[in-house]
Amino acid sequence: MALVDLFLASRPKLGHVELDCTVTEQHARGVRRSPYPVEDGAERSDHTEDLPEEVILEGLISDVAPVGFVGVDFITGLFSDARAAAAWAELVGLMRSKEPFAVVTSLESYPRMVFADGQSLTVERDRIHSTTLRFRAHLIRDRVAYTTTAAALAAAVQDLAAAAGSAGLQTAGAAAATTAAAAAGAV
């Protein structure tokens, strides 16, 4: 997966932070069943609840920008000692903002993600990774309960717009289906 990321026009993202490549991606979805017995003939769908989606990304951002990286000044910006440090500062700022953000991966775009509880952002630096930011981010879908239909529809439209703007790794049909499913889950 990492080698493919180097040649894509649109890279994986956490919010506004573009990654050079992803080392690993873990996508998790699940349900929680009610601990109470279900009456015979009752709808079983009322006794399970979808858990929020979780994504664990291990990514790399190097001090050396990949060739063809958008916004790189090839004379002064190709080799920058501060690129990995700046990316770390942006990731920490994203976590401290406590605001939901879009995440783009090779499989799916997630419109409302936040950092999970606990050690949700970790970094590894050693002699091998001294010029690279190798980090692990544990993210979870931000769940919102709406009290009015108008608020739910407005939020769904906003999520659609956010996902459409950052869904560069998917085809338009797949992104629309994924975003529509996410909007339906928000309502």
What do these coordinates show?
It is built from four helices and ten strands. By secondary structure, it is of the alpha+beta class. The protein has a domain at 2-31 and 48-145. Strands 1, 2, 3, 6, 7, 8, 9 and 10 form an eight-stranded antiparallel β-sheet that branches. Helix 3 packs antiparallel against helix 4. Residues 1-8, 73-77 and 169-173 have low confidence and may be disordered.
List the SSEs and their pairings.
Layout: H1 2-5, E1 13-14, E2 17-18, E3 21-28, E4 31-33, E5 48-50, E6 54-62, H2 83-97, E7 101-104, E8 109-115, E9 121-124, E10 132-141, H3 149-166, H4 172-186
Antiparallel strand pairs: 1-2, 1-7, 3-6, 4-5, 6-10, 7-8, 8-10, 9-10
Helix pairs in contact: 3-4
Number of strands: 10
Backbone shape = elongated
**Helical amount:** 25-40%
Percent of residues in beta strands? 25-35%
Number of helix segments? 4
Give the mean pLDDT: 77
Name the quaternary structure: single chain
Distance between the termini: 34 Å
Give the H and E element order: HEEEEEEHEEEEHH
Assign the structural class, choosing from mainly alpha, mainly beta, alpha/beta, alpha+beta, or little secondary structure: alpha+beta
Largest sheet: 8 strands, antiparallel
CA-based gyration radius: 19 Å
* Low-confidence spans: 1-8, 73-77, 169-173
